[in-house]
Design a protein that fits this description.
Helix content is 58%, strand content 17%. Strands 1, 2, 3 and 4 form a 4-stranded antiparallel beta sheet that branches. With 196 residues, the protein is of the alpha+beta class. It has 2 domains: 68 residues; 102 residues, Band 7 domain (Tetrahydropterin Synthase, Chain A). α4 runs antiparallel to α6.
C-alpha cells in the first residue's frame, strides 16, 4: 500500500509539474501580447500626434508647433512687389448693335456665296451712339457695299476677316467725321459671322 501511495503521489507531482509547464508558457505569451499591444498603442499615439502637428503647420500654426518642437518658425517668402499698372481706361465703353444683321451675296470662284454678319460698334460718349443711330442708313449702305465687294477666299481666313473689320471701322469713322466733325467710334466687332 505504501508503494501505491508513493506512486499516486509521484503521479500527482508529475501532473502538477505538467500543469506548471503548461501554465508557464501561457504567462510568457501574455507578456508578449501585452508588449505588442502597448507598442501598437504607442505607434497610434505617435501617428495622431504627428498628424496633429502637420495639420497645424499647414493651417498656419507655425509658431505654436515650432515652440512645441523647439525649432525656429519658418518665415513665409515675401510677396513680390508688382510694378504699378497703368490705370484702366476710365472712359465708359458704350456698344450699339447695327441691327438687323447684314446679309449680302457675292460671287465666289464657282458659285454665289452669302454672308450674314452681326456688327456692333463701340464709342465712349452717349452722343456718339446717338449720331450712329442718326446716320444709320448712310452707315448701313456703305457697309453693305463694302461687304458685298469681298471675295470668299479673303473672308475664309482670319486675316481677311480682320481686314474687313478694320475697313468697316474706317468707313463708319469716315461717315461720322464728314457728318459731325469727329470719328466718335473707336471699335467695330463682328459678333456673328456666317458665310455660305
Amino acid at each position: 500500500m505504501a508503494k501505491t501511495e508513493e506512486r499516486d503521489r509521484r503521479d500527482r507531482d508529475d501532473e502538477d509539474d505538467d500543469d506548471k509547464k503548461a501554465k508557464a508558457p501561457a504567462k510568457g505569451g501574455g507578456k508578449k501580447v501585452l508588449l505588442i499591444a502597448s507598442g501598437a498603442m504607442l505607434l497610434l499615439v505617435a501617428s495622431i500626434l504627428g498628424t496633429f502637428l502637420i495639420t497645424r503647420m499647414l493651417a498656419g500654426g507655425h509658431a505654436a508647433s515650432s515652440a512645441a518642437t523647439g525649432t525656429a518658425p519658418v518665415q513665409p517668402a515675401p510677396k513680390p512687389k508688382l510694378a504699378p499698372t497703368q490705370p484702366r481706361n476710365t472712359k465708359q465703353e458704350l456698344y450699339l448693335a447695327l441691327d438687323p444683321p447684314f446679309v449680302v451675296n457675292f460671287q465666289g470662284q464657282n458659285a454665289m456665296h452669302f454672308l450674314q454678319v452681326t456688327i456692333e460698334v463701340m464709342a465712349h460718349e452717349p452722343a456718339a451712339i446717338k449720331d450712329v443711330k442718326e446716320y444709320m442708313p448712310h452707315i448701313r449702305n456703305n457697309l453693305v457695299m463694302l461687304l458685298s465687294n469681298q471675295s470668299s477666299a479673303d473672308l475664309s481666313t482670319l486675316a481677311g476677316k480682320e481686314k474687313v473689320r478694320t475697313e468697316a471701322l474706317a468707313e463708319i469713322q469716315k461717315i461720322l467725321q464728314q457728318e459731325t466733325g469727329s470719328p466718335q467710334v473707336y471699335a467695330v466687332y463682328f459678333t456673328s459671322f456666317v458665310m455660305q
